[in-house]
Amino acid sequence: MACSAPAPSEPSGSSNSGVSSLLYLRSPSYRGDDVRELQARLNLLGFDAGREDGILGERTHAAIRDFQRNVALVPDGIVGPVTLEALMRIRPVGTGPGRAAVREGELLRRMSATLEGASIAVDAGHGPADQGAIGPTGLTEAEAAALLAGALFDELVARGAEPFLLRSGPATPSADDRARRANESGAELLVSLHMNSHDDDQAEGASCFYYGREGYVSQAGQRLAEHIQEALTGDLGLKDGRTHPKSMPLLRETRMPAVHVEPCFITNHREEALLRTDRFRRGVATAVGGAIERFFLPESAESKQGEGPARAGASLASAKAGGTPGLPGLPGSGARTGAG
């Protein structure tokens, strides 16, 4: 836990670098774009500030001190005008990825090739105190997310994983609280479930989001999002709203690969009706669970599995239902697949 730093030893001042001219470790931690810029700069210079999440925690504090030692400054962990000037004066060698991107790439290569025993954080978006969007017949985003989270929890247990829910019961934890719990629990992945919404009640389809900002994306998050999006559109026949980088707090502040999944528009009459059915929710859970399992495979094994039994089984079910992709018997399933 961050402890308050002693009184700052560097004078404060103004700066046009994008980084605040006085940052140091404290509780609660400094947060924001200025901290994220600082982390990105340190990582690019080879000082491991950790994930560029915009939170000045222990790892970023250690990187600041390491940098200060290397440039013969007092290693007090305080970013004032003197430290900031030194940071901006030193040019990175080349334009390659920073330490955070390199470390995430290594994490992907070392990741276990099995879902068995993996700790997975499952987040049901919103909550009783924050219902989110509401469908035409009154289904709330919070209710639909909780039902989908329960189905995904059961699916992951059946596949041998060890999932846990970040929201249950009457609580509506903040994004910060959810991220903190996922980090402290040592989760290997995080899947946050939400619904999309739009003023146009014909808007439909699935989208997935992973952490990204200008100059940086989470490689692992992007790969997981692409697996889930492919499963939702290919296996269930949902319209393809594609994957997108986004700097949402839960994606930004978690240390593990994390995705924000919106399988449906709750404001669409047909998709709201699907969300009310256990069959569809189990279909979404199966698709997401299978995608997570593929994520854990080495990339060479993934390409082979793409033509394997899981895909063949889905094709067989589709053929038995009259050649329409998606879940047999679901009205409209697979009717509008394609880029949107």
Give the topology:
Elements: H1 33-44, H2 58-70, H3 81-89, H4 99-110, E1 119-124, H5 141-158, E2 162-165, H6 175-185, E3 189-193, E4 206-213, E5 216-217, H7 219-236, E6 240-246, H8 249-253, E7 258-262, H9 269-275, H10 278-296, H11 299-305, H12 309-320
Parallel strand pairs: 1-2, 1-3, 3-7, 4-6
Antiparallel strand pairs: 4-5, 4-7
Helix pairs in contact: 5-10, 7-10
Characterization of this structure:
Strands 1, 2, 3, 4, 5, 6 and 7 form a seven-stranded mixed β-sheet that branches. The protein is elongated, with a radius of gyration of 22 Å. The protein has helices at residues 33-44, 58-70, 81-89, 99-110, 141-158, 175-185, 219-236, 249-253, 269-275, 278-296, 299-305, 309-320, and strands at 119-124, 162-165, 189-193, 206-213, 216-217, 240-246, 258-262. It has two domains: 1-104, Muramoyl-pentapeptide Carboxypeptidase, domain 1; 111-320, Zn-dependent exopeptidases (Aminopeptidase), CATH 3.40.630. It contains twelve helices and seven strands. The protein is 42% helix and 11% strand. By secondary structure, it is α/β, with parallel strands linked by helices.
Low-confidence runs? 1-7, 12-17, 307-325, 328-340
The total domain count is 2
* Shape designation: elongated
Number of β-strand runs:
7
Biggest sheet descriptor: 7 strands, mixed
**CATH fold-type name of the largest domain:** Aminopeptidase
Classified by CATH, the class of the largest domain is: Alpha Beta
Rg calculated over all Cα atoms:
22 Å
How many helix segments? 12
The CATH architecture designation of the largest domain is: 3-Layer(aba) Sandwich
- Please state the structural category: alpha/beta
- The SSE order reads HHHHEHEHEEEHEHEHHHH
Task: Indicate the proportion of strand residues.
Answer: 5-15%
Identify the CATH homologous superfamily of the largest domain: Zn-dependent exopeptidases
Average residue-wise pLDDT: 81
Q: Helix amount, in percent?
A: 40-55%
Euclidean distance between termini CA atoms: 44 Å
